[in-house]
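Hey, I was hoping to borrow your eyes for a little while. No rush at all, and the record is pasted right below.
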Amino acid sequence: MQSGNTGKRLAMIRVTKTQEPARTTVTVDGQLLADSIDVVEHCCSQAELDGKPVWVFLRDVTIVDHHGRQLLARLAAKGVRLVASGVYTSYLVQAITLAATPLESHPAAEVGNGKPPRRAR
């Protein structure tokens, strides 16, 4: 969607919060762009106040820009669980989650002799 003659893209987004017994799920549909990350971040912050684990579910997300990826990385670093449907968002969530996880916690670190793999120099 274009805004008048400015050429600025407006994000089309829907964010819903679902209270479940074991967790709070924040579901995102649409485009996770710079002008929409505040609403997602606010919703996640509110969900964290309940004291239950928070999951962010990228359900029908079609575009995630740099600012959206930064938001997801911040959320993952804080312990928010990221889940996604679709090939694009599933790959993105996997990459962000792996980057936010300390090396010793990676499943690959448990393979072999029980020591983390050595990094190439």
